[in-house]
Amino acid sequence: MAIKVGDTAPDFTLPNQNGASVNLQNYRGKAVVLYFYPKDDTPGCTAESCAFRDQYEVFKSAGAEVIGISGDSSESHQKFATKYQLPFTLLSDKGDTVRNLYGAKTMMGLVPGRITYVIDDNGKIKYIFDSMFNFKGHVEEALKVLQGMRSQ
């Protein structure tokens, strides 16, 4: 079952691009932009990840951390992050356990979907953006939501 706005973000622990375990619970007290993407080093995923990279300091100044998740290995993530100078955490979700936990669907049942969750500092889902082809929209929409959260 897919999670929705207002739900508590399901906790998980996954390895990052350096092989270290990362637990979502450790980010409580800080907003998190959690984006699921299909595959490292593919055109759409590179465009999306580089858009997050290009706005990373804006996310940080808004009090948020950016975390990307795909089914690729930690080694693949490390190469991807190095090649494109991605300054944020990439997590390896082998077997799509966390993707399924969040209900992040696949396109035509084959290709892992592209979906972004904005999680507030209390661990609640504030916004969900689901678009396979609007790569920069994931970044733009997440920033709008974060700016709205800060002005409240």
UniProtKB/TrEMBL annotation:
It is found in: Thylakoid. It holds the Pfam family AhpC-TSA. Keywords: Antioxidant, Disulfide bond, Oxidoreductase, Peroxidase, Redox-active center, Thylakoid, Transit peptide. It comes from Brunnivagina elsteri CCALA 953. GO terms for biological process: cell redox homeostasis; cellular response to oxidative stress. GO terms for molecular function: thioredoxin peroxidase activity. It is an enzyme of class 1 (oxidoreductase). Gene3D superfamilies: Glutaredoxin. PROSITE patterns: THIOREDOXIN_2. The active site is at 45 (cysteine sulfenic acid (-soh) intermediate). InterPro entries: AhpC/TSA, Peroxiredoxin_AhpC-typ, Peroxiredoxin_BCP/PrxQ, Thioredoxin-like_sf, Thioredoxin_domain. It catalyses: a hydroperoxide + [thioredoxin]-dithiol = an alcohol + [thioredoxin]-disulfide + H2O. GO terms for cellular component: cytoplasm; thylakoid. This is thioredoxin-dependent peroxiredoxin. Belongs to the peroxiredoxin family. BCP/PrxQ subfamily. The keyword Thylakoid applies. Thiol-specific peroxidase that catalyzes the reduction of hydrogen peroxide and organic hydroperoxides to water and alcohols, respectively. Plays a role in cell protection against oxidative stress by detoxifying peroxides and as sensor of hydrogen peroxide-mediated signaling events. Monomer. Residues 3-151 form the Thioredoxin domain. Its EC number is 1.11.1.24. Its main location: other.
